[in-house]
Amino acid sequence: MNDNALHTVEARIREQVAAFCASDQVPGFVAGVHHGGEQIIVAHGTANVATGAPMREDTGFLFGSVTKVLTTTLVLQQVDQGVLDLDTPVVAYLPEFALNVPGAADKILVRHLISHTNGIDADLFFPDAKGRDALKTYVAGLAGGCGTLFEPGEQLSYSNGGMIVAGRLLEVVTGLPFPDLLRRDIYGPVGMRDSSTSAEQAILRSTAIGHFPDPETMAARPTGMFTLPDTWGPAGGTPIGTVADLLAFGRTHLAGGISPSGTRVLSAASTALMQQVSFDMRTPNVPPMGMGWVCYPFGDTTVLAMSGASPGGVSLLCVVPEHDLVFTAFGNTPGAIMLQDQLLQWLLGEHLGVAIPALVTDVQPDADLTPYVGTYRSDQLRIDVSIVDGQLEERTTYEPADAAQERIFTAFAGGSTAAPPQRYVQIRPGLFAPAGYPPQAFDGYLRLLLVSYHDVRDGQARFRNGGGRLARRA
Percent of the chain at pLDDT above 90? Predict the structure, then answer.
């Protein structure tokens, strides 16, 4: 890429970020692009409104679920070394792994953990433990309180639990605590020099915190919780780093597993396996899943992506193998995902010339909405679906298992345990869009806002999928 093109990208990102942050009250944003051997990083605004610290190019932030791609890379490193086999049951390596349905855990293979096809119903299970035994505590808690959503390999549902079990599995087979393993086998060889796994380390350098909009003024107020518990480390609760670090990790996956410094981090075969579709729900709101990577189709171009929510913040890492491009960004309010989507679509459409087809072309109302009506549940989440004024209306309520779960979840979600009622319009049988959005809103990353219903039997859908997560009819 020539310097002029790079200059144009930097200027456009700077302009879009400044305009969005001003209008949508996002305090700070940082983004980076690597393309054709050149790299730019743009930082804007404030990292922490409580201190006024600026967002800098080298400011660290919580990776959130972007960590899941790092965890998957760690698992496949052990596969490369012959320590793990993807088609072996997890319990062969981790005998204490169990769920509250007898025998259910025995059917889950290692590959199911990292392809989100395990069926573990633990998406909001937040045991509060710290230190060396945090992941051991998490796995022990699954046996007492968490069941299954579906048979392993039968469906796809974004799985925090699967990734955390994978983290514990790694601890057992390597003998190292997950943070130490991450430092040794990812941060070191990739060259992620400014990455850590604890607030104690992050405070020693420039680090951003999350913010939530004040319900009355909509002004950004600082989060009351920086990281999630240590139990969520492998799913994204604790790793912290910079845009430059994530660009280096993305470049490693662009280069067949070789880091920017020339170190072999992952075999070419395992790097390719992560990018191959392992499960496809064949519905626009749930992109095909590789291993670790979500494989977003933008026309004929595939964007390997993972976004990461943290308390009051959101990160995004995208790798576009066909165009030798890596894009990563962090914004310190949840609404910054909209800006990340805008920038990604601009990079694809304007900078790379990728044709982005319309995902939602028209609305096809169906007179019969009754198959979708009812109550759907997943771990500590209840979704009541009814028909109001000829549209589907969903009411989502968080039902905490105990006081500790409630305290962690509400801090993570900005203080709320129930979402306002949301109306949906039908696009086609079984697929719905939130009312009030223009159809083009769903062409990019925000296709995750669409909701689908699956497996209609005897006039009733068995599953609802929202944001890539399944809930089962109660």
Answer: 89
